[in-house]
Amino acid sequence: MKTQKTATLLILLLFSVCGYAQNTEITKVPENPTSENSIEFFGKIKSVTETSYATVEKFGEVSKGEKYETKVFKCDNKKNLIEYEHNYKSENEYKNEKTTIKYNENGNEIEKKTYTNEKLDFAITWKYNNKGYVTEQNSYGADGRLDSAIIRKYNDKGDLTEYNSYGVDGRLNSAITWKYNDKEYVTERYGADKVLFSKTKLKWDDKDRIIERGEYDSLGNIVSKETFEYDVRGDNTGHSEYDKNGKLAWKCTRQFDDKGNEINNVRITYDDSKIDTLWTKISKYDEFGNLIEYDEYPQMPFGVGACRDEACIILREKARKLSISHKCVVKYNKNKIKIESRNFYCRHYYDEVYNEYYGNTFYFYNSNGKPKLAYSSYVTHDDIVTMWCKKYDEEGNIVEDLKKELDEWRSPIIRDPKTFIYKYNEEEAKKIEKEIVNIIIKEFDTKTEYIYTFDKYGNWITKTTYTQKLNSMPTCTGIIEREIEYY
Known about the structure:
Blueprint: H1 2-17, E1 19-20, E2 26-30, E3 38-42, E4 45-58, E5 61-75, E6 81-90, E7 93-103, E8 109-116, E9 119-128, E10 134-140, E11 146-154, E12 160-166, E13 172-180, E14 186-190, E15 196-204, E16 210-217, E17 222-230, E18 236-242, E19 248-256, E20 262-271, E21 274-285, E22 291-297, H2 310-321, E23 326-332, E24 338-349, E25 354-365, E26 371-379, E27 385-392, E28 398-406, E29 414-425, E30 432-442, E31 446-454, E32 460-469, E33 475-486
Antiparallel strand pairs: 1-30, 2-3, 4-5, 4-33, 5-6, 6-7, 7-8, 8-9, 9-10, 10-11, 11-12, 12-13, 13-14, 14-15, 15-16, 16-17, 17-18, 18-19, 19-20, 20-21, 21-22, 22-23, 23-24, 24-25, 25-26, 26-27, 27-28, 28-29, 29-30, 30-31, 31-32, 32-33
């Protein structure tokens, strides 16, 4: 299972570091129907069949052995995933999972069905209005019966005005109704049976900007209030929030330069009208408006029972100003291209007024803005030191990625070291700027190598894995093949 996860990670790494011609068409396919991650394919994909094999070695020759996993992706001519099928072996039994998806002419999902071993697990259908908003969502169980339904209604401006949820028996589970003013701000909220449970009152200045927003319960009692302040350019310079008793709960103040760039941001939270935490960010810009430096000062926890008188607060504030939690310095060349970015981090213990070095991350770029070198070292919460270093070629393609951990600073004990080495093929420079032909991972006593072959579109179609233990010969441990059909 660990090998499969590593392989998936490397597939995503593969597509993130390859450079292809700008006019190449891209098809993004989800890893599975519920995943937010996607795999990028070059060209307009119709279907992809990915088959994984164990390997067999006879008389020194390696060949494909048992097939243990197959994934099939199918897309329509609008690049929408319309079918996903996954066949795999689990506890000596083969399982089949399948999802089918249908779309309307606007590309919105209107039906999704999921099966296991050809038996329906559940289904969902959607309906939309002429503006593309979901008006109805129905969920069905394995027996095909309706499990739940959600009905939504909108006004002519597209604002959601009603939300009703129903259960298996058709009974109403929940209902919410919203009312808006002519500026499309919510002013009233109702529950089931149209019972008012909250109300919003808004105030504007003469330039039509909100300067106050109050929230009230169904009895008209105030729940919270927010106020807003602006400068002559219209930048939001202040935002405060008060509780139901009128006590200040949260405040943010911002300052801008004459070009509208934020140069100071202070956020304060309060407990019983006394400062509880405080965070500050100070930014600097060059003459072209590029952010060249910013300092973040940490939230200053006063804690329950901590000294909160004025003298104590002043002392803590002095200590806080000497302890930047995050500092970033950026440099640009004469062509306004970023060539360097340095980040510094600190960890703080305020009660002892003590600052511990936390870590840093540096990024360097060539004159064209492409990455050249990046490295980082930092201490985690359990005092484990993590280090990594990435090197790139002249075109900005990654060629080496080193990662390691130490039990503590200057410790001789190295934990979980890995080195990723990327090799490229430049033979087809016209179609593909650079394609990875193999990835090598070096660990304690093991070297793992992934070797790829590609089709004319630049998508890999075979991936062969070799594993080599210390003082031994490399062994082929897996083969994955793809069959790709294009429109």
